C-alpha cells in the first residue's frame, strides 16, 4: 500500500483495506481519551499508522495520536504536516501534528475505525520529508522498546537466579568436637579405674601402679650420729679439741652400703576395649 496513490486508496474495496494497511498511512479512528469516563464517546480524529504486525493469525496496528492543536510538548516524538501538498496527500486541510509518544495498538477489527463512504477508514498516505520524519520517530520508539525489553529480561534472569540460590541446599558444615577431659577417680589398691578421657574410637587408656620388686624395697634407715653430722658439715670441732681437716670431709662407714629406695613405677597400658 506504500506505493498506492490517493485515488487508488479511495477505490480500495472495503474488504481489502485490512490487507493493504501499512505504516505511513493515515486512518480515521476514535482515539480514546484517558481523562474521560467510559460513557464518553471519543471523536473521530486522523491517526498515523506507525506499524502493522500479525499475531496468532490476527493483524494489529499501532496508531499515533493526531491533533490540530499547536503545542511544544513531545516535539521529539511528533511529525508535523504543514505543507499543502502533504496535507492533500493525507486527505486533510489543516496543519496536523502526529504525536508518537501517545499511541495505541488495536486490532484491525476494532470498532473504533470510522469507515467512510467507500467503506474504508483510510484517509491517505504521508509523502516526502513527512514520511521520513515519521520513519525516524518509529526507529526511536523501536529502539527504546528493545532496550526496555532487554532490561526486563535481565531483571527476570536476576530474579530467577536469586530464587534458585534461595532454593539450593546449604553447603555442609563440618564441626570438630573434642571430648571433655574428666578427672580420673581415686585408685584403690594397685589398679585404677579405667579413664575415658582422651580415649577415642576402639581403645581406652588405663593407668595402673606397678608394685616394686622385693629387692628394691627400702630398708630401715639408720640415724646418723651428731658427731658424724658435725664432722661432715665442718662447722664444729671434735670433743678432743683437735681441729678438723680443711676441706670437705667424707666419712665412710664400714659395712654394706645402704640401698636407695626406688620410686614407684607408673606405666600406662593401652587396652583395646
UniProtKB/TrEMBL annotation:
<feature type="compositionally biased region" description="Low complexity">
    <location>
        <begin position="208"/>
        <end position="217"/>
    </location>
</feature>
<feature type="region of interest" description="Disordered">
    <location>
        <begin position="149"/>
        <end position="264"/>
    </location>
</feature>
<feature type="compositionally biased region" description="Basic residues">
    <location>
        <begin position="250"/>
        <end position="259"/>
    </location>
</feature>
<feature type="compositionally biased region" description="Basic residues">
    <location>
        <begin position="218"/>
        <end position="227"/>
    </location>
</feature>
<protein>
    <recommendedName>
        <fullName>PemK-like, MazF-like toxin of type II toxin-antitoxin system</fullName>
    </recommendedName>
</protein>
<feature type="compositionally biased region" description="Basic and acidic residues">
    <location>
        <begin position="149"/>
        <end position="167"/>
    </location>
</feature>
<feature type="compositionally biased region" description="Low complexity">
    <location>
        <begin position="181"/>
        <end position="199"/>
    </location>
</feature>
